[in-house]
Structures
1.
Amino acid sequence: MNKHSIIHRPTDNYAYACANGSVNIMIQTQKGDCESIKLIHGDPYDWSNKEWKNVKTPMRKTGTDQFYDYWHVVIKPPYRRLRYGFELNDGRKSIYFGEGGFSDEKPKVTDFYFAIPFVHASDAFQPPSWVKDTVWYQIFPERFANGNLENDPKGTLKWGSREPKPDNFFGGDLQGVIDHISYLKELGITGIYFTPIFKAYSNHKYDTIDYLEIDPQFGDKETLKQLVKVCHDNGIKVMLDAVFNHSGFYFPQFQDVVEKGQASEYKDWFHIHEFPLSFEPKPNYDTFAFTPYMPKLNTQNEEVRNYLLNVGRYWVEEFDIDGWRLDVANEVDHEFWRDFHRVVKGIKPDLYILGEIWHDAMPWLRGDQFDAVMNYPFTRNILDLFAKETIDCQHFVENMTAVIHKYPSPVNANAFNLVGSHDTPRVLNECAGDKRKVRQILTFLLTFIGTPCIYYGDEIGMDGGGDPGCRKCMIWDETEQDRQLFEHVQKLIALRKEQPLLANEGTLSFLPVKSNSNCFAFMKEKEDKKILVVFNLSKQAESFQFPALFNRQTPIDLWTGNKLHDKQIQLEAKGFSILEFSN
Ligand code: ARE
Ligand code: CA
């Protein structure tokens, strides 16, 4: 057995407690190295005749990536305390692994074992229960719909008449969203993520001037109240974007520093390296990236902290919003986010907190900060396989398995999955215009675990490159919309609602990919019901053989409603299938 590649620590994705008191343990071992693993566990104080009482529970292999097998088990320690270790068997002999290292004999002292001293519900990761069933829709307000010509900024261009630029305006606003609520309802989405709506200079509004005002180009507080009400009346949650890493250049507090320099009472609100301020070639104060227009806020400063926490509180308390998306969340200190969590959840316990983090985000997902992060590692894998074709099915399944095993499963169930945003090229462009690929990608997005988000316009086949190309005006002329694609997305959302296994019920596993196969499948199962989602990456039609485990079950094709009588299914080139198996 290769001891070097046996990995476990009693924390994070490897060991976490749920609010119901159960504990989830995961271990990873070299691919193919272990035949079986058992968890040895017991209460640390439970002894009789000077012997520690413990039991063995078999672990289940939940996935394999390029290098590792992953094993899981869930147990519920009766007294909420736990000592545990692993019995690993390679088919010939067993070895024992605990905090004390490796042993050929089963150690008798509890100190050898890993410890979970006590399971506290308050320490568990507990996102709001509504989140995992939500289908999000992302709106960039300047470009979704213009519902009020009177608030249009000077120089507003005719809707959709030009390519989007970093500095042009088309007049989109909050009234526009209210006016099109029936469109969103028809599509079936249940949550909207708005990029920033507070008073700011640019068209994207990430350079805030006033955190406590709606940008007049988008409407006023009354319009937001109405919007929230209309959304709630239609079963749609509302999430706003909080830009707390930095302010805008024209934020009055920063302007004060620009004017008064060292004498400004706000000089400690930012991270100024030296006075006087300079802006070129790089600013001499901390910023978002290197843009002088976005001075970084000093969240170590108590005044700043209180100011921002009040902003967090204000929009929840006064406007009843349901979520905060936190911009550049990874560059703000953890202590601030812990305070933020306490404040906003103190007002509305089922408020959702989504951090914008593009990389491994475990430190923010331990229950004391965020409920989810924007799952860009998911995006990357999907685009590499379906759109860019730079990896094959085998590689994709391995990558996805690795991504999933980086987090506890409740984190995965609530992950904010996306295939594009206002920061990335549109999915249609990534697919070089191939709508079959787009359909596959949206199918994967809406049937996998996590909570899917659709970027406005992707559902009607809009195109656009990276920022600012991906920020075109929404197309409202139905003859210009891809209505077939719209119906595809609509049908997927409806199916996801009908079949909880397509959302976050049950357990997920990938089927082993046959060598050189252009098809892959994942399965969700609960009790005796299974749903299989299959994709054909090939440019030709291919048949996909059901594994032996399905032999006695007659599948129903959930997409067409047909009963299948074969032990295989024929998939179109770049096609997919969603199948239900039950006894
Ligand atoms: C403007 C121009 C861009 C130019 C950029 C360079 O439009 O063409 O590339 O300046 O300075 C907002 C606006 C942008 C604007 C930007 C700066 O929406 O249009 O860009 O402000 O003025 C990283 C961060 C991540 C950030 C992305 C953009 O980690 O937090 O970069 N995303 C948020 C918002 C943006 C917003 C800002 C932050 C600033 O969602 O819309 O931009 O408030 C990798 C890395 C990621 C990196 C990602 C993209 O994969 O892992 O860390 O994200 O690439 O670069
Ligand atoms: Ca307008």
Note: The pocket of acarbose derived pentasaccharide (ligand 1) is lined by residues 166, 204, 206, 243, 288-289, 291, 294, 327-328, 356, 358-359, 422-423, 467-468 (CB under 6 Å).
2.
Amino acid sequence: SLFGLPEQAAHERVLLATDPATGLKAILAVHSTARGPAFGGCRLWHYDSELAALNDALRLSQGMSLKNALADLPFGGGKAVILKPEGSFDRPALFAAFGRAVQSLQGAYITAEDVGTTTADMRGMQAVTSYVSGIPREGAFGGDPSPKTAWGVFVAIQAGARLVLGRPSLDGVRVALQGLGAVGWHLAEFLHKAGARLVVADVDAGKVERAVAQFGAAPASVADILAADVDVLAPCALGASLNEQTVPAIRAKLIAGAANNQLATAADGDALQRRGICYLPDYLVNAGGIISVAREYRGEGEEAAVMAEVGKIAERVEELLQRVQKADSTPARVADDWARSKLVRQG
Ligand code: NAD
């Protein structure tokens, strides 16, 4: 049943948008507007089925509610996925059609970049909707959120290394990076500068070669990266990388990365805890990008202030670990309760 999907009951509304002229098929999921308009990126991806796309949109938009709440942003959670058309397509026209769908929600949902979408796509949509962010502007704050996401993951790793591994600095700390994309590459730069020793994998061999040359990273295969002999694992590719198959082989004692929905199921978070592995929940750690586009959208963006706000992710990691000790639970479950307690309608 469509309304019986695991995440569906919790969503305020879901728009299925189509435009035969451009081939647009998009799902815009508004999970919650309790804290404010639903804010979350738009993903362009090839899905095996329409149901898989719907599930992704529902899971991701719920995650945005939790992420925005924990980051204390005055926004609710939403997300959009565009099913990538087969073959060649007119990209500006496709995004214009998507932008019109965003506009039709009249501000209930605000979009930005995600996997598969670019600053140019966002800029193009400005002609048809005002509910879009992540746009580079001359002399003003804005644009690609991924460096800010990477900074948030970096400070979370620093805090986790200190509090969980007893390492006051990242000098010599071994970090495995799964995915050297927009976020993963910036994260590799921050980690390298801090003296961490990197092990890296990406399906794109060229990115791995560049990381070996630039950061002295050790290459690993895509199949082996999660089980690398390291202190910290940073999943920065796609979701569900922490699952029944991978968890038993993980050797890192701390996990903190950018990828959304890293845990395939809540039970995988419990399994990590039983193995003595501290998993810092993705939506706490990877909020840097949404903080950036949210501040840009409100016209409040200024580089140093946004970096400082993203830096507060380290304090939240510390608070989470204190809450975990008191609750005798897992970080994933405690973060979930903490975020949900903030999903309340704002005055
Ligand atoms: P991206 O597409 O630029 O990078 C992903 C990288 O992972 C690519 O280089 C890809 O080749 C690689 N990859 C894919 N499958 C892999 C596998 N099995 N093993 C190793 N590498 C693999 O995306 P991004 O913007 O860097 O985002 C990465 C993750 O972080 C995504 O899950 C995204 O939703 C999440 N995220 C991104 C942001 C942001 O600001 N960009 C913010 C929050 C969360």
Note: The two ends are 35 Å apart (CA to CA).
